[in-house]
Design a protein that fits this description.
Elements: H1 2-7, H2 10-29, H3 33-48, H4 50-63
Helix pairs in contact: 2-3, 2-4, 3-4
Keywords: Membrane, Transmembrane, Transmembrane helix
Transmembrane segments: 36-63
Length: 76
Amino acid sequence: MALKRLRGSSTTRSLTVFSVLKEAKRAFERNNRTRGLLLLGVAVLAWKWAVVGLVAQGVVILLRGGRSSTSGPQPA
């Protein structure tokens, strides 16, 4: 019950939307407009359903090959 309440709180939704918008900005900076536009759409949906944003972030991490957004270039 507490987990459901936490998942639906406005703080959780705000953090999820902020995180998805950060990923969208990163995509636009890397000239990946398609991913950026999709993430902007996800940010809108994430305000209503936080789970959508969390799932999208997981997908982005998988597409990126498991690297987090804070990791720098990987040595060869």
